[in-house]
Each structure stands twice: as C-alpha cells, then as structure tokens.
Amino acid sequence: MKHSTRRAASIAATALAAGLVLSACSGTGGDTDSDTGGDELTEVKLQLQWLPQGQFAGYFAAQEQGFFEEAGLDVEIIPSGGDIVPQDALANGDVDYAIAWVPKVLGSIGAGANVTNIAQIFQRSGTLQVSWADSGIESVADFEGKKIGSWGFGNEWEIFAAMAEEGLDSTTVEIITQDFNMNAFLSGDIDAAQAMTYNEYAQLLEAVNPDTGELYTPEDFTVISYEDTVGAMLQDAIWADTERLESDEEYQETTVAFLKAVIKGWAYAADNPEEASEMTINAGSGWGASHELWMVNETNKLIWPAENGIGYIDEAAFEATVAAALSATNETGASLITEEPPATAWTNEYIEQALAELEEEGVDVKGDDFEPIEVELLEGGA
Questions:
Q1: Domains of the chain by range and CATH?
Q2: What is the pTM (predicted TM-score) of this model?
Q3: Cβ atoms < 10 Å from Cβ of 23
Q4: What is the full DSSP assignment across 269-337?
Q5: For 138-165, what is the mean pLDDT?
Q6: Average pLDDT of the segment spanning 213-239
Q7: Which of 68, 187, 242, 319 has the most C-beta neighbours closer than 10 Å?
Q8: Residue 46 has what DSSP assignment?
Q9: pLDDT digits (tens, 9 = 90+) for 341-366
Q10: Cα angle 222-223-226, degrees, rounded to a multiple of 5
Q11: Which H helix or E strand runs over 184?
C-alpha cells in the first residue's frame, strides 16, 4: 500500500476543503490562530480508549504529520488508563469524538448513551485466547471446566458469545480476571488467557522460556482467534454525538474534515510503520521499540486491506456483532444487551463523504496492495 497522494496537489486540495469548512465553522470548543496564515482552527477533543500506543498510531500520525491542521483542526488527543469510559465522556459532552469497541458502546447505548458509530476503523477482531500447546484446549468448545482469563471492562463479551454459539453454559467455566499482561498465564494460574494480537500475544513472544533460556515461540502455544468464531465483534470505531450530528451543521462539516485527516494518518501508518511507532513512543506509550513496532504492524493488519475503504461500516458485520452481543450471557447470568440498538447506532454518511473526497485527491483509502512487515521481537519488547 502506498500513501500516494500526489502530495502537493493533495495538500492544496485539503487546504481548500479546510477553508470551506472553516468559513462555516466557529468550532466545537473554541478557536485558536493557526501557525500557517493566521486562519482559525476548529478545536476538537478526541478520547482514546486506552493509553498512547500503536493501537492508535493513525491518530498520532495525523497529528504529527499535520493532517489535522491541514483540515483546519486543532485536535487534542486524550488518553485513558481505564479511568475514563470513552463513550461516556462523549455522551456527557466532555469530548467531540471517542474511540471504543462496538460491543462496549452497544451496552452504553442500551443504558441511554446517544452516540453514533461514524467510522469502523478496525475491520477485524484482534482478540485471542492463548493456551499452552499441550493443554488440550484447541477450540472454544474445550473451555468447559477450565480457568479462562479475561480483563473484564467489556472485553469479555466475545468469549461469552463464542461460548453461546458452542452451547456452553457460561457457568461451566471459571472466569479469572487477569491484568493487562500475561503474568497469571505464565505462572499457571490461567488455562487460557485473553490477549490482543497487537499487545499481550507479543508479551508472550518476548518472554524467556525458563526451560530453554530462549524466547518463547508460537509453537509453544495454541491460539484461538475470535475472528474465526461467531463470537467475533467489531472493535475500534470512531463515535460521535448523535444529537449534534442530527442538528449541528458545523459539527457535521467538522466530522468529515476530521475523518479525512484520520484516514490520511492511518494510511501514513500503513506505509511508514517504523515512523508511526516512533510517534506513539514519543506520545508516551511506555513500550519498548520492538514491541511498539509489532503493535503498529499488527494493528495495520486489522485495518488493511479495507474492501470498501477504511472506516466504512459493513452492515452485515455490524449486525453480526449485535447478534453476538444479544446471545452473550456472562457467568452471573447478565446480558450485554437485551434488544436491538436504534438505527442511529451507526451511519456511513460521513465516512462515505470523506472517502470520496480523499479518492479524488489521490489518497489510497483501500490499501489493496498492503503488505505487513516482519517484526523481530526482543526480550521484554526492547
């Protein structure tokens, strides 16, 4: 994949579009003077789902490469260490946009949050359940009677949806709340641990096997990918305020401008994973260089190629996520949702406009020729 934008023409076109937006927008949170030409920038607050890391590389790339500014935006990227629920911050009016997994937000919508999915950035689920190769756990059907790790906080619903499809009663497994690391698994307290392709799985492969003195290898583990199960659910999406989308023309225009800049940021991360990983490290990720590069590379795999364009919401995939959410029951008998979400839960209106405009500017929004790189993990992710 190449971010072949005919850069000079693209910047000029983006600047023209930004000028049109700014002529209509007074800003979502106040205005500041631009460093280029004195034009006013529209202030935007973006709430992340977690701390800065490669999972969010496209947003930091959009900021560092000046794509937000070219679009007439002054974007503040706000991290969360678990102390902020992104969709709640959005629904409360604290931010303008938020990044969150679809099932988590479906639960919030069921509880009254008035938010809309405007761009499905991750096209595929990155959740795994990892066990030792000799554990006998080859599929979700083998979870019965086992200690199954999960982080909770809404990350567990793919597990329960996959179990429901297998006809497993959730009370037949022992759900172990694990930290956002693999320590409990490595110490034998968990039979199958939850892991993301781009994070916790890498933590295993950068850990030393005490029996060999070498790093663990994929052959040491059995990996179940929820993408291969009915339990697979859509994950990182961009959410907007539903009421503002319906009534605020300035917010509508800002939304298109914001999505265009974000798409360019993710296209940059696809073509320049090393530089993108450095950006997230500089933003405060705290991970080592090899781990961070792995994270960016694996995140790119969840996005590219994008058959209908990055961010486009596939109706069938969204409905499958809803169906899985409806079927899932946790170990206490609680359900994630009990009824279908409203029609306002998602829209392709703004992403379609952003994609069309970017394609006219020469931006590759599908990444049909995307190829991931090879990443060598070092001990501790150094």
A1: 7-124+233-381 (3.40.190.10), 127-228 (3.40.190.10)
A2: 0.90
A3: 10
A4: HHH-HHHHHHHHHHTT----HHHHHHHHHHHHHHHSS-TT-TB---HHHHHHHHHHHHH-B-TTS-BS-
A5: 96
A6: 98
A7: 68
A8: E
A9: 999 999 999 999 999 999 999 999 99
A10: 150
A11: helix 183-186
